[in-house]
Amino acid sequence: MLAFTIFAAYAAIGIALIRQAQGGEATKTLPGWLAGLLVLTIGVHGAVFLSGVLLSPGTGVGLPDVLSVIAWLFAAIGLFAGMQSGFAVLAGIVLGLSAALVALTLIVPAAGVSPLTWQLKLHAILSLTAYSFLAAGALLAAASLIQDAQLRAARVSKLSSVLPPLLATEQLLASLTTSGFIFLLMAVTSGFVFVDNLFAQHLAHKSVLSLGALVIFGMLVVGRQAAGWRGRRMLHLYLTGFAVLVLAYFGSKLVLEVILQRSWG
């Protein structure tokens, strides 16, 4: 029942933001009462996850837990975006994704989950935080590519009218990239420190792909700071790095837990 309430709140606020933008109010921020409701929902959602997984000794982190924490982090990013002028539609979409992920937690089985130590839980949370920042950035990158293509074709669509200027999305994307890279670096480092026999637990492919994604996002951070990388090439490279990251984590999680009925923890 609580999960359904959280789902309904995220979905309703997301729809309200999108309708606000469609009604010609794309530059307005999240209304105060909706922001308060979202903060309350995020607080309850976080408390449920913390008490159920992080603070409970001897518990594991299954696929439903993964989906739940990503939904929670997406909602937090949606709150931040909703408070920025011009990002109402993108915030609404992110909150819609949060709602969908919460709904999936009620469907996806938590098979093959082994108890984890606090060190491995920390590694998992760092990984999921990195993924959430970079996933939000992937949504922004995709929207920027669409907007750029429409501008080059001299077409002004309804989507372009409700999206912020490319410069604003580029600046937000740079912040998400940097934050995601930092958390991904910590996640990869903690994996090598806390996970014993990393390459002997059917995790070799996950480790290699994670390192590949880390290199790509590191290139993006350095390239923007040192060489001022911008434009479509940067966006395409970002989406490539995110695709590698999705394969690294969710590909491994799906195969091990759902198909092979095993846990990597």
Q: Which helices and strands occur, and which strands form pairs?
A:
Layout: H1 2-25, H2 32-54, H3 63-82, H4 88-105, H5 118-152, H6 158-162, H7 166-194, H8 204-227, H9 231-259
Helix pairs in contact: 1-2, 1-4, 2-3, 3-4, 3-5, 5-7, 5-9, 7-8, 8-9
Structural description of this entry:
By secondary structure, this protein is mainly alpha-helical. Helix content is 78%, strand content 0%. The chain has helices at 2-25, 32-54, 63-82, 88-105, 118-152, 158-162, 166-194, 204-227, 231-259. Helix 3 packs antiparallel against helix 4, helix 5 (118-152) packs across helix 9 (231-259) and helix 8 (204-227) packs antiparallel against helix 9 (231-259). The longest helix is centred in the middle third of the chain and has 35 residues, at 118-152. It is flat and about 55 Å long. The model has no long low-confidence stretch (mean pLDDT 81).
